[in-house]
Amino acid sequence: MAYTKEQIEKLNIQFKGIPPGEIISWAIKNAQKAVVTTNFRPYEVAILDAVADVKKDIPVIWCDTGYNTPNTYKHAEELIQRLGLAIDLYVPKQTSAYRDAVMGIPNIDDPRHAEFTEQVKLEPFRRAMDFHRPDVWFTNLRKGQTAHRDSLDILSLSKDGVLKVCPFYHWSDTQLDVYLKERNLPNEHKYFDPTKVLENRECGLHT
After folding, report:
1. Superkingdom, according to UniProt (predicted)?
2. Separation between Cα atoms, residue 161 and residue 61, nearest integer Å
3. H or E element, residue 138
């Protein structure tokens, strides 16, 4: 699936206001290899449910930093079982216990923060994408989350040329709350990302 910038801009105009399921169906129909990524943060259940509803066996890449809360791990296990997710788990090459002993969790002003982010998130993600080599990547990025994400749209190209599809891009938390309530889906808010510290900060996967 190869599209020019102009084609993507036109498609984004067409897709605005279209139900996520229709966008997902279009992308899967035109994809050679599609994946969805998740970290089971708040509202991730929406993209997982919507994509699994169209393609049950789609690979679900979970890059687990090793620092998730017990609530997040329980939430992940519930969704994996309930939605029948085809999880492909990727973890850092170093254990969190080893890292805690030699580095800890550096704050964002610490020179070691870049190395920490590389270890717990970027390297596992690259490893996953190198293995799957998708041409379509479903993710639950939404407008208003960060300044960078405000510059994206429903469709955008990753830095590696993969078509990134964000079916809920224009949705608010309130709209997603209704979506989850209608489908009786659980949400989880006790989530911790050790690479971000601040909610409106990018970790590097989408930049």
Report:
1. Bacteria
2. 18
3. strand 136-138
Q: What is the pLDDT of residue 2?
A: 74
DSSP lists the bridge partners of residue 165 as 138, 155
Positions of E strands within 14-129: 34-38, 59-63, 86-90
- For residues 182 and 168, what is the distance between their CA atoms, to the nearest angstrom? 16
CA atoms of 79 and 185, how far apart (whole Å): 9
* Tokens coding 167: 């079916």
Whole-angstrom distance, CA of residue 81 vs CA of residue 140: 20
In whole angstroms, give the CA distance from residue 118 to residue 126: 10
Query: Which residues of the chain fall below pLDDT 50?
Result: 199-203, 207
Compute the distance between CA of residue 59 and CA of residue 56 in angstroms, rounded to an integer. 9
pTM above 0.70, yes or no: yes
Q: Please name the amino acid found at residue 32.
A: Q
Amino acid at 10: K
Q: Would residue 184 be called left, alpha or beta, if left means φ above 0 and alpha means ψ between -120 and 50 degrees?
A: left
134 contacts 1 by C-beta, under 8 angstroms: no
Q: In the 8-state DSSP scheme, what is residue 142?
A: -
DSSP β-ladder status, 155-157 and 163-165: antiparallel
Identify the helix (H) or strand (E) that includes residue 70: helix 70-83
